[in-house]
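Annotated sample (chain length 335).
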Amino acid sequence: MTFTVSVKDSEIAFDCGPQQNVLDAAERAGWAIPYSCRKGVCDSCVGTLVAGTFQVPGRGKVSGPAEVRLCHAHPKSDVEIAPKRVEQRTPPVRKRLTTTVHRRRQVAPGVTILDLRYPIGRRTPFRAGQFLNIILDDGDTRSYSLANPPQYNDLAQLHVRHEPGGVFSARILQQLEFHDTVEIEAPFGEFFVDDRSEAPITLLATGTGFAPMRSIILDHAARRLTRPIHLYWGARTLDDLYLLDTVETWTKRYPWLRFTPVLSRPHPGWEGATGHVQDVLIADHTDLHTHQIYACGSEAMTNSAADALARERGVNPERFHADAFVSAAGAPAAV
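Output written by the structure step:
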């Protein structure tokens, strides 16, 4: 038995089995809905159940109207939904590979960069900003943004934030040695730049939310694009801006790139921006109506940025794209 999922105020409709979630069913039917963790932890895929009934883990049967995470919504009847966004997209081709550790280096007190190599002759095409899943021995997954540009799709560079008690970041990562194997699946994610627009691009990152921004910027350079990009990268201290020198070098090389580092706990003598990245962005611009904004980092930052930019600068939600990191306690998203 399958049920029909229809999208409010559109002609979009697709089938979904009772054991499927709406996010997966939409993807298989060629419709892309925003998401991050796919595990019911973050709120990236939250949409409105307008009519009908879902079975939702931890909530039981939910009838419309109600807000639901579409990655955990299983239909019990025909349903009508109103997602934040839905776009027609070719269903993704994902690959599961056994990679090998090429290099592991700690670049800040709480950050390790892990370079993985794919088997000879194997590649995983992706778009700058997407992420992969590391598959643990018990079948659980941990998701990390791809920091390498798509032009180098026979490898993966991951920027891993150390999480106290984290299964991967606190235990497995520290034990990995050269040529050890890591199982991955890729690509995932709807966090990538819309190439159909010529609008200025604003990147908001906190911590290792810089990883997909690195991919986006290097992809921009590799394709010799000149669309303006302004990166705001926030951290607590200067040491947490773990590739600061690299970004400053980029700004000298690429005239289309601007960079504003932001510290929330600046050291004495710091003359740069302070506070939260979204507040600095708002202070810098009185008009952001034409900007495409991409935010990656803590869920607190992405939610706060979405609210503040809409409220104080009238930014249309269609122009704000987020990839939120969530805690590893339960089910982590891209970190």
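Annotation: Confidence is low (pLDDT under 50) at residues 329-335.
Annotation: The two ends are 37 Å apart (CA to CA).
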